[in-house]
Amino acid sequence: MKVRDANANIRIVSRMWEQRLSRQMERFLDVDSVLSAADLAAPAFAGAAVGIDITQTIQIQGVEYSMIRLRVAPGSFLDGMEVGTLQSQQNMDIVLCERDGVAEVKPPTDRLVRVDDQLVVFARHDRILDIVSRNQGRRK
Prior knowledge:
The chain is about 35% helix and about 30% strand. It has 5 helices and 8 strands, in the order H-E-H-E-H-E-E-E-H-E-E-E-H.
């Protein structure tokens, strides 16, 4: 309150444990962003549970997006597909493909994805969850 009183235009960012209190701070004290330690750590725990690296989820115009790094599993729907086909049909962006120790940023659209390729994928968070599940052969 003292900071807001001293400078009405200053950007305030806070870290808190209690989510309900953090929402109240945003509303009543005009705090720009309140970050919860649990919210910040959640993607890392979720990713570790399924064997992927996942970034913090970000919101753009109310839609959540994430970036993940995953290894293409045997039997994955990704295996044998072209990068461009995956991007257009699966509504995702393959940002990087690493094969045999060589990483290629923005791989060509005609590149075939193979088992054991390491991919970095950016997509809506709900798409990320589907991609991870289908990569592991859990859903068709």
